[in-house]
Amino acid sequence: MPHHLHWTAWLVPLLYLLGAAAGLPRRSRWQALSWASGGALGAALAGDLSHLVPGGTIGPHNGPAAAVMTLIAFLGWVIARYSRGNLAGEAGERRFVCSLLLTLAGVSAVVAARNLGVLVLAWAASSVAVHPLLTHYRERPAARIAARKKFLASRLAEACLLSAAVLLYRHWHTLGLTPLARLIAVHGAAGAQLQCAALLLAAAVLLKSAQLPLHGWLVQVMEAPTSVSALMHAGVVNLGGYVLIRLAPLISASLPAEGLLVIVGSTTATLAGLTLMTCPSIKGRLAWSTCSQMGLMAAECGLGLYGLALLHLLGHALYKAHAFLSSGEAVRESTVARMRAAPLRRAPFATVLGLAVAAGLVAASAQLWHTVLHAPAVPGVALLLCTLGVATLLWDASADALTRTRNLGAAALAVQLYLLWHLTMTEGLGAPSVTPAPLLAGYSALCLLLLYAAQAHLWRAGGATRHSRLYAWAAAGYFLDEPLTRLVTSRWPWHDERSPHGPLGQWLAQREGGTA
Description:
Elements: H1 3-22, H2 29-50, H3 63-87, H4 93-112, H5 116-134, H6 141-172, H7 177-187, H8 192-208, H9 216-220, H10 226-236, H11 239-246, H12 248-252, H13 255-276, H14 282-302, H15 306-325, H16 327-340, H17 350-371, H18 380-391, H19 401-428, H20 438-461, H21 469-475, H22 482-491, H23 502-511
Helix pairs in contact: 1-2, 1-4, 2-3, 2-4, 3-4, 3-10, 3-15, 4-5, 4-23, 5-6, 6-8, 8-11, 8-13, 10-15, 11-14, 11-15, 13-14, 13-20, 14-15, 15-19, 17-18, 17-19, 18-19, 18-20
């Protein structure tokens, strides 16, 4: 990354830090949040424009960083505006504003970092800063328990990250991300130290991304304000995908690390996807959806599909932020839709026919893009993921020919957009792409097909399986979170009145005048 582009990227976290400092006085908290978030968005957009100057062409090292930095700044601006209208006047608003800005500073510093040591420190700082946000309503025991679960998972992840950094430095005597990528490209990652470092990095990302079985905190963090949920699900958790993309040379050179990401990620995506189908609340579904999507993103990186992972990261962040910030309106719209909806015809073979049509549409489109437009071939697992997603648009067995034509047109358009954005991520932004290992690709494909079959079965049954034992286990999250819950509640009882905010939250609460 050219020198001037590097310093442009650091303007974003710097503005957030200045905003946090300016927000300490009682009268300027929301003004500081507004100008800091607006200034950070302007700085991120200016950084994107600076890529157009001579020597600033987007390449494999700054393309994903520029896209993710702009995403973070945009989401921070939106969440800041929402929070001001939603939380102004509440007790602890100063602590909320400062913690939000410090969290955004840490997240954006992870993206701006060119050194693994700086990245580890920034990621740890963002995790510490978000803790007071999760316990904004300290009188709610569930919020405190979820925050403590996240605390334990984050500290374990940071220990893995630090150990990996030490191993890499002992072997290569550098922590620069670009020098490390060059050294691995030339010498490979043979040796126990490098393989162990790659495994530790993969394990740290899985821990930070709320993968099974340490996923409970992400599902239970719904006790925090809606804007905090949007920040967590759209910004903080997604950092794991970016870190894997940034460290792609090391991960791709280690088959054990790729295997860990694919097996844990694919399994989490499947089990969490089954659970969200049983969840009665909208915010609960969104939480389990994030857990499942993070699993898919980890599996994509383990398969070497970093362009697809970058596309997934950007799309999921925008969708999930909108979904959380509009969740109240979504409840009303869902109720109205159920009242007005006509009975849906569930033909026995609609899901199979939809899958066949979607497969033909995706295969023909991919071949057309490859032969006519000379686009690089898309890996089979990526095409399967697109096929399964598009197939659900073709399940409607209505006899209305206009409806069937409209659904087919929507499916065709979705496929073309998918291929276009996949090409943009790999060729335009320079996200790396590696040929997936056959066994890992087969396992991931099997999990995706299993999830599709389960979803199709539930759709055809129309809720008739609610009393089955499998349904009960899925609705309970397979009880995988119970051991960690027992550990946390035995160490910190839910009725413990000590401050749950940690050192940062306690200091901010004292500045607030003792208000929790």
